[in-house]
Amino acid sequence: MIARFSTAAAAVALIATVGLLPGLGGSAGASQESAQVAQGRAHYVEHCQLCHGADGQRGEGYQTPIWGSGTQIAKFGNAQGLLDYMQLMPFNDPSLLDETQKLAVVAFMLAQHGAIKPTDQIDRAAAANVPIP
Fold this sequence. Notes:
This protein is mostly helical. The protein is built from six helices and no strands. Helix content is 46%, strand content 0%.
């Protein structure tokens, strides 16, 4: 089961890279992303997409959209609040991602939500100053 999921995750990552998955950009979108957002995208595909969906709108484990209009992402207030919550993720094993990787996922999510530009990066020390509308 683990090997099959890893292969599937790798396939999804490859498809996203070449631009065949809506919501995960593709080569044109990825080339206009900061390294942090691009890394967050890759970590999202590998560790988050199964539960939250390729486009963050619904997955196998969580049926409520996590970014975009009408979502609850704003309840975290700022990037620091979302990063604090990310300490519980991924739900199956929070130790799968370290602090830097979780910050990259936050940057990717906020770029998808429109709270930051895809070319932006979030510094841990300034995360509290990045509002989530």
